[in-house]
Design goal:
Layout: E1 7-8, H1 22-44, H2 48-52, H3 62-81, H4 95-113, E2 124-128, E3 134-138, H5 139-163, H6 173-183
Parallel strand pairs: 1-3
Antiparallel strand pairs: 2-3
Helix pairs in contact: 1-3, 1-4, 1-5, 3-4, 3-5
Length: about 190
């Protein structure tokens, strides 16, 4: 029997079902867009030197980290849509280029996710990672990964802001939930 060289991410009895609803997945996609936009606003208040300051991490700077999150959001959207899209180029280090491009990606995620129901998110997507390795991953795991990945790197960028004596905007998930409650008139 020949074994497939396609790797299945997150296979197992617990991960073969979806412990989260389609509506919650859409809510968390909205959260990640909200948090990224808040961090873009904070970055816009920095000088070019501050945005580019090297903190010795893989993505080096505030802008490098933002471009990394944007690139991942864009690559994963392309994967779930079944198209190819590589890493973003250096032009995205300009916030005037990055912000509208990221908004286009956010709108792409919203349009893609809007009609999906719970069972749709159980579907596996076949794709190749950036090293060319083949994978199959359920959509719900991809969405949670995109949100978690962005949260991790936004936290790094928020730490960079603090290291420069700046106060980063609240980016916590609870802050997002609270913003929704206040928008709906909750105390």
């Amino acid at each position: 029997m020949r074994r497939s060289n396609v790797k299945r991410a997150g296979a197992g009895p617990i991960l073969d079902s979806m412990p989260i609803s389609a509506e919650t997945l859409r809510l968390h996609l909205d959260y990640t867009a909200w948090a990224s936009n808040r961090l873009l606003d904070a970055a816009a208040g920095l000088s070019l030197e501050e945005r580019e300051r090297d903190f010795g991490t893989a993505d080096k700077s505030v802008v490098g980290t933002l471009v990394h999150v944007f690139g991942a959001d864009r690559i994963w959207l392309a994967r779930v849509q079944g198209v190819e899209n590589g890493r973003p180029g250096p032009e995205y280090r300009d916030l005037n280029v990055l912000r509208p491009a990221w908004q286009t990606v956010v709108e792409g995620w919203k349009s893609w996710a809007r009609p999906l129901v719970d069972d749709d998110f159980l579907r596996e997507v076949a794709y190749r990672d950036l090293q060319g390795n083949p994978w199959r991953t359920p959509l719900w795991q991809i969405i949670l990964h995109v949100v978690n990945h962005g949260t991790h790197h936004r936290g790094q960028a928020a730490g960079f802001l603090r290291a420069m004596g700046r106060t980063p905007p609240p980016l916590d998930l609870i802050a997002y939930y609270r913003s929704l409650g206040s928008a709906a008139g909750a105390p």
